[in-house]
Amino acid sequence: MAQSIPSAQALIEEALSLNPDFDVNSLHAQVFIFMVDYRSIYYEASVDSFLSELDLPKELRTKIKRKMLKPVMVGDKEYSNFMEEVSRRVSQAFQPISGNVAELCVERELTKVGLVKGINFTRRQERTDFTVYHPDMHHSKLKHRIEVKNVKIRERATRGLLFDGDSLFGFFDDESEFTEPTVELIDNLCVKTGGYCYMPSATLNKIPHKAKRLRPNVVFAHDMLSFARTGKIT
After folding, report:
1. Among candidates 6, 1, 220, 2, which has minimal Cα distance to 115?
2. pLDDT in tens, 93-103
């Protein structure tokens, strides 16, 4: 049997064991490196398990293994090996982990500034990823909802701002997604909600279409602390 894929929490803890002072973007990047490594390990273990059941000479098994793990191109898309091209099961297994990793990174940011889960904020309640409260969770009007995305903004991110979030937090790595119409839409939505779109500075600095509601995601937690204390983001 191939070894199981670690949980998002286990990946976070493994990354923090390297450097407990990682900022949110460095932590997310390191976890992604681990995910790629574990994917390779998963594939290799799967191939070893499969070949071990065949009565083949060792040298032949080695050649077959090398071929099975060789990257392949299908059109303009590269797959790590033919198994990935045939079946997306492993990738599908990583999709929920990726989303969970992003949310755990955000949760760590909130707790680092002193916000307490269950008191100052909740996760995956009220149809959104995170909700920050002021001064307590019983005042429904004094809350700020945060939608968390991973590396791609896509249409559903702005749709999340429209229906389920007041701010948007992401690890967006492609500045080309932030076209002038997209930036204008995000800005207009965030003005209405009193929120912001938080992203890595490396991406933010490359966006030619600047807006008042785009901020580095490293200031996110302090903004939420401000909201928890005052009821608004300053």
Report:
1. 220
2. 677 788 899 99
